[in-house]
Amino acid sequence: MADSSVASVDGKGIVTAKSVGMTEVICTLGTGEVLSCMVNVKEGASPESIFLSKSNITLLPGEYSELDASVVPAGENDFIFYQSSDEDIAIVDQDGIITAVSPGVTVITAESESSAVSASCIVRVLSDSGYNDFGAQVKGVIYDASGEFMPNTAVEIKGRLTTEKLTTDSRGRFLFRSIGTGNYVLTVYTGVSDSESVSAGLVISSADVRISCICTENDLAVLYGAGTDSGRLLRDIELVQNRAELKTGDTYNIALVKVPSDASDDGIMFSSSDASVAEVDDEGRITALRDGAATVFISSSDGRIIKRFTVVVSQSGIGKFEWALIQLQLLLIIIVIALYYKIRAMKKKED
Q: Where are the alpha helices (DSSP H) in the chain?
């Protein structure tokens, strides 16, 4: 070994890197033949990205959730720093334990020590409202992002006084009985561990609640039922368009037609698969927030009808068409000015 401070080698030929640099490993065979190999020890590679176990978490005040972070590529050793954008809403320690403090929305950011890669998780803290004595019945169906039922899937409803967990049937249906009115966290477990889950807020304000849950990779959309069966039944929801490309800060109203148009069930619900990219209100008005893509789910009150509207958001700025118009206008101005001075020069010659 030419430089044992860079690397060492044992009697079995196993080389161990010690410090950055280059050295030569020399091996003498029993025949007297000498072989050598150059060893180049480099600094450890910086992580390319960070993977978080959850991108959306919904909690009640005083509750906590654990956020696991790992660097990509796997195996790289790097310290992860956690930080909350608003510690009045939720705090996070350096083990990734998030504690809800007060109602609101905050962003938990995980950042690597050695490079500028980071990942974020949106944390929503619901208000801890009061509860009535009577028990509500919560019926629901869980669909995946493609619209298929999610059978044999664990579902949990958690509130200040209640925590219940059950499994959906063969058609993705679940039923919670005797749930007091108030604010809850509804969690769908998509894997064997608690970290493999998505959650959303659930508001129970009547004795009979019907909901449809759209379970995506990063979020859970909860669409509420209207609780009435009177009048003509809504048979379909027709979208005028099913896609919109927006700039950050833009708004867009989803245009739709009820079939039949005089259906009494007007409890059409809207929910975004990623509210950090594009959020939607109860009237179907979309607001573009940051770069990315999101799906807006449009559902009938009983969950029988589900439509999807794709939203693609890019940074605001001057597009190619607008820039071409600006260049054309500048060219016209230059031509007009040139013609003005040319005509003026010709008149001076005539004089």
A: 320-350
